[in-house]
Amino acid sequence: FYYDFAEVVNEMPVPSGLPGVLPPNCMSDIASAGDVKLMGALRAESDHMTLQVRAQPPPLEGFPQFPNRETTLSHSMPGDTVAYMESRAIGQSIKYYVDKLLDCLPSDGSVPGRDQLSQMLGTAPEDYFDFVEDVGIGMTLRDGEFGGGLIATVNDETVAQVRLERLLSAVRLAAGVGGG
């Protein structure tokens, strides 16, 4: 199959931003990033079905290319995995979107800016997930119960551990402050 999301993107209204936070004109680059072309094939294997999809990234300056490589991420999924999806260059994609959103933030001090976020995170916000390469997401079915899992390849394990621990600490703090 072949699908061109450009037709859908062209028909969709550009989001008007977030009132009081993001200006209306700020969302056009983010919406344009949906202009992806997909080509795929569905194959019946001896004990499973495989849907393989290739994506052509949108023609936007600075948008990351999707590397064409094989991984062994799926081998780490348990035997009762019923659905699995894998994607490439996730850290670079996050970087693109975060950078575009940060460009839109008002400079009047009403929300934390790049410098404040960098100080809080210990690195530039757009670079926070730059250690992530490929990500796999699996869904399992065991004894009638659905479960899920996430696995990723990273380019620097130490950086990944430090940044994820910092993120988890912030989530724990927010959950404690929020009463839950």
Mean pLDDT, all residues = 85
- Low-confidence runs (pLDDT<50, min 5 residues)? none
Please tally the helical runs, counting DSSP H or I stretches of 4 or more residues. 5
Radius of gyration: 19 Å
What is the terminal separation in angstroms?
46 Å
Strand runs, count = 6
Approximate shape = globular
Order of the strands making up the biggest sheet: 1-2-3
Q: Approximately what portion of the residues adopt beta-strand conformation?
A: 25-35%
Largest β-sheet summary:
3 strands, antiparallel
Describe the oligomeric state of these chains in a short phrase: single chain
Descriptive overview:
- The structure is a single chain.
- With 180 residues, this protein is of the alpha+beta class.
- It contains 5 helices and 6 strands, in the order E-H-H-E-E-E-H-H-E-E-H.
- The protein has helices at 6-11, 28-32, 90-104, 114-121, 157-177; strands spanning 2-4, 37-44, 49-56, 81-87, 132-142, 145-154.
- The strands form 2 sheets. A 3-stranded antiparallel β-sheet has the order 1-2-3. It has a 3-stranded antiparallel β-sheet with strand order 4-5-6.
- A hairpin with a 2-residue loop joins strand 5 and strand 6.
- The longest helix has 21 residues, at 157-177.
- The chain is globular.
- The protein starts with a strand and ends with a helix.
- 9% of the residues are buried.
